[in-house]
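forwarding from the other thread:

> can someone predict this with glycinamide ribonucleotide?

sure thing
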Amino acid sequence: MRVGVLASGSGSNFQALVDALHVEGSPARVLCLICNVPGAKVLDRARQAGVEAVALDHKTFASREAFDQRLAAELEQREVQLVCLAGYMRLVTRAFLSRFPGRVVNVHPALLPAFPGLHAARQALEYGTALAGCTVHFVDEGTDTGPIIAQAAVPVLPGDDEAALTARIQKEEHRLFPAVVRAIAAGAVRLEGRKVVRREVIA
Ligand code: GAR
């Protein structure tokens, strides 16, 4: 399966996808990385991994839709079949999603539907939850509201600050996100309306 990754920042999830998927016999391969923030570290990671890196600055587009249409065109040109949002810090519009129906997935650092949006680990600490974690879900037009594919939980430990909890959550993201992509590529995950049908447990 041909995978395209969208990212905005450091790209540790991009790296985890490449490291896990670019092995012999893998059912999926990352064909390109598109980053909306010029100079972001993820662009260097892609070049170093030998993955085509495209910088597309959203600020140079007249509207959100115009940007999303160009983004979709770039992915279509490369015949991308699955789009992974890996720390992609923008909402995607219908203009984008309609071009990849049921084929856009996101990783989020919380056990959704708790703590959508920004600073999820900080929100969990402020709320005082005993568990935190990450979610991989299909993307819809809302903020982290799409159908959930898989989740992993981690404990919140005494003395945790945002950085410590984020690191613990990201370790799980780096494992879970590639596992979900592999399962989708193997045909083990299907979307029926809002319901995710899994042939196996993804953990
Ligand atoms: C990840 O923890 C990801 O879950 C989060 O941004 C981080 C990016 O890190 N995404 C969101 O919060 C989206 N709502 P990375 O650039 O090192 O992969």
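The first strand starts at residue 2 and ends at 7. thats all i got for now
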